[in-house]
Specification:
The structure is a single chain. Helix content is 27%, strand content 21%. The chain contains seven helices and ten strands. The longest helix has 14 residues. About 3% of the residues have low confidence.
Length: 235
């Protein structure tokens, strides 16, 4: 399979760094059928470490998905552009159908920077569980870091239902890619039977704190035992 490099424009990179997310329209239009068939093949196989219709490390389980997603000129290249650093792969999964999720951040990393690249294989809109993000909340050390209680219980503390919290709804079509920093406050409501593939990358750690946080993230995110201190190679 001959695939062109994945790439973000200067405007898309600025959008990501400003707001914490970016939607790359049509980035996977040319491989949509291939990716969908490979996804369904992986989820049809028995796996000891699967949970319902969720499979961890889904791309590693398919030669096709490895080539489309994990080859250096594909998602790793895009991650390097958006984060502006070398990156390491830091997990991923495949999901068919997903429950609604209230407002949250993934982890409380102070030094580690993560990026999730998501391809939804079904159209995503507000009522069907589309990702909702509060723009700018990926920034560390900002005023949003003091609002954890309000985001945990917006009905009691803000007087509004969680679905009414002001946010950007990231609608998408199946050929789009959505990249976001999971330190952003994000949620989804009205989730249905949609399918998605996620790959996660981390900026190459430059401090002891970042290395500790990356080790902790990998231990939590990946199935099976992992040797202490072992970090994946740079991509």
């Amino acid at each position: 399979m001959s695939l062109a490099p994945l790439s973000a424009t200067a405007a898309e990179i600025t959008h990501f760094r400003t707001f914490g997310f970016v939607r790359l329209r049509g980035a996977h239009d040319d491989v949509l059928t291939t990716v969908t068939e490979a996804f369904e093949d992986v989820l049809s196989r028995p796996a000891q470490d699967r949970s319902g219709d969720s499979v961890s490390c889904v791309a590693e389980r398919s030669d096709v998905l490895q080539e489309v997603l994990l080859a250096d000129h594909r998602c790793p290249r895009l991650a390097r552009q958006l984060l502006g650093t070398d990156v390491v792969q830091a997990g991923g999964d495949g999901v068919r159908g997903e429950a609604a999720a209230g407002w949250h951040r993934d982890g409380d990393h102070r030094a580690l920077r993560l990026l999730r690249i998501v391809q939804y294989l079904d159209p995503q809109h507000g009522p069907t569980g589309a990702l909702r993000i509060i723009p700018g909340t990926h920034r560390r050390g900002g005023s949003w870091d003091t609002f954890a209680a309000e985001m945990d219980d917006p009905l009691r503390l803000l007087g509004m239902d969680p679905i009414d919290v002001p946010a950007f709804t990231v609608t998408s079509s199946p050929g789009d890619l959505v990249a976001f920093d999971p330190h952003c406050y994000h949620a989804s409501f009205g989730a249905g039977a949609g399918r998605r593939i996620t790959t996660t990358y981390a900026s190459a750690p430059e401090s002891d704190e970042a290395r500790r946080e990356l080790s902790g993230h990998l231990l939590a995110a990946r199935p099976g035992p992992r040797e202490s201190g072992g970090l994946p190679a740079l991509t």
